[in-house]
Amino acid sequence: MNDLALGREGTPHLASGSMTMQGRFFVVTCFGLVFLNCLTFLYHLTGSTVFNVLSNSTSLLLILWSAHHVMITNEKNYFYNALLTLACIFTGTSYLVNFGSFELSDGLKLVSIYSFYVAGRGMSERMQLPEKRCIYMLAALPLIFRVVGQTHVYTSIEYPDVFSYFPNTNTAALYFSALFFALSPWFGNRVLVAQFINAAIMNRVGPALATIVSIGLWSFFPLRLQVFVVLILLACASIAAHAFGALDRLLTGLNAIALIWSLDPSTVARMTTKQLIDLTGTTDMSAFFRITHWTNIWQIYSSLGPSGILFGYGASQTGVLTVLPLPPHNDYLRVLAEYGLLNFLVFVVFVFSIVFSLKDRAAKTMYTVLLIYFLSENLIDNFTSMTLFFSYAGRFTSPKWRARDQPNA
């Protein structure tokens, strides 16, 4: 689990007096995530597996903490409780069907996002200053690591784009997106400015594209004069970006995808990097490998029998079964192929029901970044990011939060 593991502005109304059990869920969760990331910091700084074991244990304790709050919540939301129950049943069945070819820790990560959401929805206490300080600390830790250390874990050729103690800048961009999502009640639309800076610093197409699409999607409704002004400005900005070459990587990737679409994945696996560069005319292979890998995953999954279609071929088995030893880089496809059709249907209903329940525009936009980003990365592995996204999504969609605990304008 060591992979890590638009609204109103104002100051939240802080709860007074001593905190009850219901008032501690978010504070303890945030402190736990800080402790987890400190252990991850030390693991990557020293390479000692002791810190890795401790960080995995902390993750498990946080999952148990969320499960405890699922049990004691006073909010009887039958819809999300049913989704959590179904996710547990279908993931457990997938484990039994694929016994011996199922990474249990990965299955636990998947189920935990439902657990954190239900717990956060049921324990939607008012936001407290210690939470804010913890989130600031979570933002500081990877930045401090870049100054004082160098990872002793991500050292092989598989990790050419390491950022701090994250395996790549895509993962790092998601991490900071989760922090901005949690902070959205404090800072409102300013988190969207921070997200643009985040995407620019990471210099990755995925985060930037997801941010642009998300802001555009939730800014267009309801239609008004300002929307059309923004559309004109975006069109001008796109033309200027194309003229200065800022879209070259995206266009080259699309051309490469069109060129190799008909190639068999096994053929791709036998080609050298030089042959691929000569074929596509680009040294950027990320989009190319994703398309061929997704095709291979679909070929394997669609050829399974009825039990395989329903319950997948086992968590974390994609890199073992496919010709390219890589994880799926698409969490929708990953849930479908590794956990099966039933888990996929529950997952899609779950994550998309949340986005339509969020009322705060900044939070809705940041959460939509996650939904789009699911299309091109392995994000469920990122424990801290998923915990923040789904526990705070539970809080932000709770009727109690909307009616009583929302920050004052």
Automatic annotation (TrEMBL):
Origin superkingdom: Bacteria
Entry's transmembrane regions: 25-43, 49-67, 79-101, 135-153, 173-193, 205-221, 227-247, 298-316, 336-358, 370-392
Keywords recorded for this protein, A-Z: Membrane, Transmembrane, Transmembrane helix
Protein name in the entry: Uncharacterized protein
Species assigned in the record: Bradyrhizobium japonicum
